[in-house]
Sequence to fold (177 residues):
Amino acid sequence: MFGQIGLYLVDTVFAFFVLLLLARFHFQWLRVPFRNPVGEFVLATTSWMVMPVRRVVPSLAGLDLATLLLAYALQCLAIWIKAEIVGVEPALAALVGIAALDLLRYSLYILVFAILVQVLFSWINPYAPMAPVFNAMTAPFLRPLRRFIPPLGGVDLTPLVLLIIVQIVLIVLANVG
Fold:
């Protein structure tokens, strides 16, 4: 019972911070403005971790490697702690590989969330103050699909196609890990 509680708490706390760090990384990579409630929350909850690491790890080609490395390190630590709770000694290669797959999986979850919110905004209120944030997050992924899939009857099906592609990738990742 206590082991399950420990696993749940480790999973919840670490996943929360890893997802926020990945959101911060993706915001910077996709040039999503931080001047919005979501961006400000992400900055407020992650800056205390990221700023010291940035002094040591520089950016590369506009990518915030410090944030990505920190998310990776936290995910590795979470896997190691969960293995210790269960009583298993994880191999270093397995730990490194599983953490990388987890970051990719979490990134895809962030993309799915952004697509769903963007679609909801487009149906309910396309001029909502948060709509540009989610448009900026999804546009680089939807743009290539829009070249091949025209709107049908005025309805853009590319978010649905992208969701299907992401789900297929998630299924593949689940079978790899």
User: Anything to note?
Assistant: The helical segments are 2-29, 37-54, 65-86, 92-124, 131-148, 158-176. The CA atoms of residues 112 and 163 lie 7 Å apart.
